[in-house]
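Subject: sequence -> C-alpha cells, single chain

Hey, anyone have a minute? Need the predicted structure for the following. Not urgent.
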Amino acid sequence: MSLIEANVCSLNDLEDGVLKEFEIGTEGGKVLVVKDNGQVFASGTKCTHYAAPLKSGAYSNGRVRCPWHGACFSMKTGDIEDFPGGDSIHAFETEVKDGQVWVKAHSDALSATGWKRTKTCPSHSQKSKELFLLVGGGPASATCAETLRQEGFTGRVVMVCKEGFLPYDRPKLSKTMTITADKVLLRNAEFYKKNDIEVLLRTEVVELNATEKTAKLSNGETLKYDSALVACGGNPRPIPAPGFDLKHIYSLRDPDDANNIVTLSEGKKVAIVGSSFIGMEVASSIVKKAASVVVIGMETVPFERVLGVDIGTALQKLHETNNVVFRMKRVVKEFRGIEGSVKSVLLDSGELIECDVVVVGAGIIPNTDFIKGASIEARDKSILADESMKAVGVEGLWAAGDIARFPYSLTKESVRIEHWAVAQNEGRVAALGMLGKKAIHDNIPFFWTTQFGKSVRYCGHVLSYDQVIYDGTVESLSFVGYFIKNDKVVGAVSIARDPYVAAVAELMHSGNLPTAAEIKSLGPIELLKKRSKAN
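Reply:
Had a minute. Here:
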C-alpha cells in the first residue's frame, strides 16, 4: 500500500455543486471531486451497491446520491447515509495550493479490490449481558445487526432466519433468475462470525410474547430478549381459486424458486398472475426461454396503481414487442391440472389459458400471526410503529421491512412500503433506537425495475396526485414524470433520464418540496444547484 499525492485539476475546473471525475496516479486510479462553498471534497467514484458511476449522480449539501438506485454517501467522510448497499466509499484528503487541487489517496483505496470501505465494528473486552433478537434474515435485520456492532453494542445479537441462506440480495432474483444464493450474499459467513453475530438458519420464531420479552423458536429453544426487531417480511398472497395447490405453481421467494421457475419454463407455456414488479420482471427474464408467456392482471394496464396508465401502457407495449401476451382486467377463477400438475388457468371471462408453469406475483401478507402483545393493523396484519420504527404501545420491540406500518416523513400518512432500501434504512434506525439513540425514519423511498434493458427509476411514495408533468415522451421510453399534489412535487419516475429522479429525491429529502412551476422552469438538476448555492 502506497500513498499517492497528485495534482488532479485546477480549482477553476470545478463549478460549485458539480461532480467531476479525475485520474490520479499512474495505475488508472480515479477520484470524484466536488467544490462546495469554497471547500473541495474528494471520494471514491463508484456506488458500493452495483458500482454505478457517482459522477452521474446528484449532489447536495455534502453528499452524493447514486443515479441508479438512490444510495447516498457523504463526500466528507465517505460514509453511506442511505441505502441500498452496505459499504461506504473512501474519502480522500484534499488541499488547494496555488489554485491547484491536490488529492492524497492510498493506492489500495483506488484498486479494483479495495474501492469499497466496510465500516469497522470495534472490539470490546467487556461483554454486555443483553440479548438483542432480530426476527428475519432480510435487509432490515442484516443492516440492524451491522449497525448494532458498528455503534459499539457488545451483547448477544441473534438473527433468526427461516430460510437456509444468509441474508442475500433478493431484488436480483427476478432479474437474474439463474443466480444462486452464494453469488448474492450481502455478507459471507466469516463476516458474521468475526463480528459475533449469531445467525440461526432454517429456524423460525413460532411465538413472540412482546409483554414478557420471550421468543419460542422452532428448534425448541426459548430466548429471553432485552430488545427485538421483527423484520420477517410476509407470506405470498394466495390466489383464492380452486387448484392453487397444484404442482408447478410458484411464488418467487428465494433463489431455489427462481432457479426452478427458469428451469421449468424452458420451452414451456408460462402464465404469470400479477402485473406489477415481480410479475413483469419475471416475464422479461423468461420470455426468450419459454414457449409462451401470458401475464394476467386485474388492472387496466401493468403498474397502473403505482405509475399510472400512460407509463403502464408504454411498458405493456414494450413487453408485447418482445412476445409477452397480456390478459388485463381479468381474475383467475380456477387452476386446472392433469395428474396433479397445473395445465391451464380459467379466467373470469371464460377464457382458458394453457400453461405448464404458473408464477404468482400478487403481493404479500405480513407475517405477524406469531406475535402477541403488539399493536397489529387489522386491515393488513402489519405492526404499527412510530417514526423511530418502535412498535406502538410496547417496550423493547421494533418493526421494519414489509411488515412495518409507520408515518411517512413527508406527509405523516400511515404507510407500509415494500422496498429493499427502505427496509435497510428502517433496520439502521431501529438499531439506533435499540441502543437508546434518537433516530427517525426520514428517507425518501427509491425503487427501480429493469425490463428488456429499460431501467425505471422512481422516488417518493405517491398515494394520490393531482397531475403528472412530463418532460420527454412516455411512448419513446425516454422521459421523466413529476407527480404533483397540491402544487408540490411528491414523487418522480423516469426512463433513460438519469440522474433526474436522484435529483428529485435530494430535493424532497431537504423537506422543501419543489413547486410545479419550479420543476417546469428549471428541472430538478438546475434547481438542486440553485438551492445548493443559496445555502
